[in-house]
Amino acid sequence: MKNENLIRVLLADKQVLEGDLQIPLKARGLVLFAHGSGSSRHSPRNRFVAEVLQKGGLATCLIDLLTMEEERVDQRTAQLRFDIPLLAKRLDAVVRWIGQQESTRHLAIGLFGASTGAAAALYAAAEMQILIKAVVSRGGRPDLAAPILAKVHAPTLLIVGGADGIVIGMNEEALVQLKCEKRLQIVPGATHLFEEPGALEQVAALALTWFQKHLQSGEH
């Protein structure tokens, strides 16, 4: 059994972000999802991973880092999805909101980012070194967070598809720049969206193992 809630996070500028918070009984940590380019909290890929994490005893929060109006603008311009400092600032606001809620404030927090959302997750982890305990990147663009990678303290797992050549190179370069506990995991034969049979299952299993290892609520 788990509690499921639609949440609304009020930002300092009075704008509101919407998300889905799910808390399994006796949750051992919480994973906040940052979606990638042109996606949303309704992404079937992130929801699949979230369900695996929930079954593994982790709470999940899938959040839209852009408001509905900003999403409409981004669909036309594709600019806001690459505004990594903005997305990271929004993640910061959500993390602090989580830390204020009775049901979640005791939970250690990890970040799961996909594509450009992974860059935002790494950027936020560098800015919130004490609050973020682990990061997982799926098909991420860590190059977009290159200036701050050396400041990331949270253990970081980079997952890339074996057929996603350009992104493999970006992640290999990021791995060198990261000074924290780190690992690059390549899923054989998988392309950028991990649509091949069994590929997303491997991503979810890798993420679950990483978060279970590093998210211990007593550390928060």
Summarize the structure in words.
The protein has 220 residues and is of the alpha/beta class. The chain has a single domain (2-219), classed as Rossmann fold (3-Layer(aba) Sandwich), CATH 3.40.50.1820. Helix content is 35%, strand content 24%. It is built from six helices and eight strands. The protein has helices spanning 44-55, 68-77, 84-98, 116-127, 165-177, 199-214; strands at residues 2-10, 16-24, 30-34, 59-63, 109-114, 132-138, 156-161, 182-187. An eight-stranded mixed sheet has the order 1-2-4-3-5-6-7-8, with helices on both faces. α4 links the parallel β5 (109-114) and β6. α1 crosses α6 and α3 crosses α4. The longest helix has 16 residues, at 199-214. The protein is globular, with a radius of gyration of 16 Å. It starts with a strand and ends in a 6-residue tail after the last helix. The model has no long low-confidence stretch (mean pLDDT 92).
